[in-house]
Amino acid sequence: MCPYFCAIGLQSVVFVWLMTQVLHASPSQVGFAQMLSMLPMLTIVLLGGVVADRRELRRYLIILQAMMALLPLGLAGSIGAGFLTYWLLVFVSVAIGVFGAFVVPARDAMLSLVDDGEIQRTVTAMTGLQFASQIAGLALGGCASWLALQFGSGSSDPLGAVGLLVVQGGLVLTSAFFSSKLPAAKPQLSERNGALANIAEGFGAAMRNATIRPILLLMFSIGTMFTGVFLVQIPLMVRDVYHGSSAELAVLNISFMVGTTLVVLALRRMHPVLRQGRAVLLASCVSCAIIGMISLAPSFPLLCLMAAVWGGSGGVTMIMSRTLVQSAAPAESRGRILSIFQLAYVGGAPLGSFVMGLLIGWLGVVNAVLVPAAGLALVLAVAYTASGIRHLRQ
């Protein structure tokens, strides 16, 4: 899946660059577009989990990724023909999100079939490969402004994205090829019951589980508070405060991913963490502090350092929470429960992104971050005192 994650990293820079630097979208437009791009994970990822449990995963992943690759290639052709609009960019972003809502549960369900018996180390290794691949994609995306200068009329010419979108499509096709090398995975769920009944069964299994339930609620809160900062405020700060281009966008994203990768390497060398629930809370507190410090509008190098620390703490949160959920989920509903986990993490992100765009319009691009920082500080205080998360372990 490394080429797939590389393609996602590339997309995260190129699409935001097209939105903010080429189309000059307003804060509310950026927030609205990011909200729409994440809606598939909110609305159909549960269906993706049901389908994953019903399918032979290897062939299923190949088909999904082969179809997904057509979207960035089509966008590249549209830009080359001189046709780029706000709504076209939103449509392609949403369509890629739709495919992702089916790819992610299938990929996560496949992980439990190829692990080495130590799920925390397997999740850690997968996370490391994911973020290392995304770093490569982010670095490629950072070339958009330079390519625009070489092949267009200036650093904001949309032609700078054409070659990168072709590369993105090629990477997804490469991931489809590598998926053909995975072992076959038999369906875990019959199709006798309807999809809604299967989703309800998955929700019931997750909510009855004392390990999974509090983690899902916390991840929903984190996704709501933090994602809007990362997807809306940071790109607008690069444009309006630091007067940067795609290169600065890429550097900030790479800093975040480097922090995560370093933490993954450290966790791989350490003995497995035994108190995963406590680690989730502590790492989330670090992330909350970093988010609040963004309101100080530090120098760009210091902001990159803060992004690296944020990436490291976010990596710990993701690895430990996924380890707890993956190990607690029964095989017959693992795809559905992992899709619910993904929904919990991204479910609040569309609303968070939209609200962040409004907050920036009201409070300014710098001070708006204090609202999600204060909100998550309150959530973490409640989680520590009123839930059993701090006692959870694999």
Please give a structural write-up:
There is one protein chain. Helices cover 78% and strands 0% of the residues. With 394 residues, it is mainly α. The protein is globular and about 55 Å long. Helix 2 runs antiparallel to helix 11, helix 5 packs antiparallel against helix 9 and helix 13 runs antiparallel to helix 17. The model has no long low-confidence stretch (mean pLDDT 82). It has one domain: Up-down Bundle (Growth Hormone, Chain: A), CATH 1.20.1250. It starts with a helix and ends in an 8-residue tail after the last helix.
Walk me through the topology.
Elements: H1 2-22, H2 27-43, H3 45-54, H4 57-68, H5 70-80, H6 86-114, H7 119-141, H8 144-151, H9 162-179, H10 195-208, H11 212-240, H12 246-269, H13 276-293, H14 300-328, H15 334-346, H16 349-363, H17 370-386
Helix pairs in contact: 1-7, 1-9, 1-11, 1-12, 2-6, 2-11, 2-16, 3-6, 3-10, 3-15, 4-6, 4-9, 5-9, 6-15, 7-12, 7-14, 10-15, 11-13, 11-15, 11-16, 11-17, 12-14, 13-14, 13-17
Quick recap of the structure?
The chain is mainly alpha-helical and about 400 residues long.
